[in-house]
Amino acid sequence: MKRLFLLFFFLIIVLSINAQKYMTKNGYIGFFSHTSMEDIKGDNNQVAAVLDITTGEMVFQALIKSFHFDRALMEEHFNENYMESDKIPKSVFKGKITNLSSVDFTKPGTYEVTVEGDLTIHDVTNKISTKGTIEVISSGINASSKFKIVPEDYKINIPGVVRDKIDKSMEVTIAMKYLPMAAK
Amino acid sequence: MKLYIKITLFVVLFIAIAGIWYALHMFNLQHPDTAKVKPDFIVSATALQKEFEDNETAASARYIKKILEVTGNIVSVTPADSAHTNISLKTGSDLSSVICTFKSINDPSKFKTGEEITLRGECSGFLMDVLLNNCAVIPNKK
Q1: A30: closest CA of chain B, how far (Å)
Q2: Looking at the partner chain, which of B101, B125, B134 has a beta carbon nearest the beta carbon of A89?
Q3: Burial status of residue A120 (CB atoms within 10 A of its CB: 0-12, 13-18, 19 or more)
Q4: DSSP label of A183
Q5: Half-sphere exposure of B59 (CA within 13 A, CB side)
Q6: Helix (H/G/I), strand (E/B), else coil: A74
Q7: Residue A176 bridge partners (DSSP)
Q8: How confident is residue A11, by pLDDT bands cut at 50, 70 and 90?
């Protein structure tokens, strides 16, 4: 009986811990560059992301090969010449909401947040800080953000001949629809 | 002599036009329609996920960038960004599936959870799930 009680107690703890985590495997990360010569747009709808609402920690993971482009050649250049995705298949962001107290996860609404963390692209890690929006809805949490990164900061070398076709900085868009992590 | 110059000019012009045409063609080339491409591998969602889970390196070498024809039962249909829909297929693991991204799917609501589906897509690799992009449903193959 005592054992059963302990097991029950343990189960409750596990369930309550799990309820604090939200995740998605269908997250969106896109980037966009506009110049007078060419628009470049890559979309990835297979981002895996976890958000812990007790600590404000968030992790994003994306496969480089999951970024798709309208033009097949652009996708090939992106993978082979710039991102070297055979060698470096993943990009990761690990960060934290710094103003967690201003978000009430129990009350539906839209909250402005600041997120700081380490962004790893092309095996180079840089600290970034960006503003974003957390939207608490009945079924889960939506998170979105827009910020700019400079390819050269991540040792992505763009040859001079095509440098004019690609904007100095890329606009990155994040859109996640988190669902509560199912207790298993 | 004049004829010789004329022919030379004509040949040069022809090569230049062909070159420009080819460059433009390559530049604007779209992704192949996976529904019409012969698949490199035909597998079940369960077998595919297991291969990646057991040995990611070997499975990556075998499947990445290849066109796979995968059959499995639908776990979830998720609208991704405005242009894409993700369909997840059930595997032997509760935590890992085969996620297939479709562009411009006509009617996402016609895909029901639990139903068996056969699709073709290009394998991007393994994150927590096996990821397929540029997917197309293969009808009449149940």
Answers
A1: 10
A2: B125
A3: middle
A4: P
A5: 20
A6: helix
A7: A143
A8: low
B131/A63 touch (CB, cutoff 8 Å), yes or no: yes
CB pairs under 8 A between A and B: 75
What does pLDDT average to in each consecutive run of 10 residues of chain B (142 residues)? 88 94 87 90 97 96 96 92 89 94 80 93 95 90 53
Cβ distance of A71 and B128 shorter than 8 Å: no
Residue type, A66: S
Helix (H/G/I), strand (E/B), else coil: B83: coil
DSSP three-state, residue A6: helix
Burial of A16 (0-12, 13-18, 19+ CB in 10 A): exposed
CATH number for region A2-180: 2.40.128.110
Query: What residues are paired with A41 via a beta bridge?
Result: A32
ipTM value, please give it: 0.83
Longest dimension (CA), chain B: 79
* C-alpha–C-alpha distance, residues B119 and B135, integer Å: 7
CA B95 to chain centre: 24
- Full-prediction pTM beyond 0.90? no
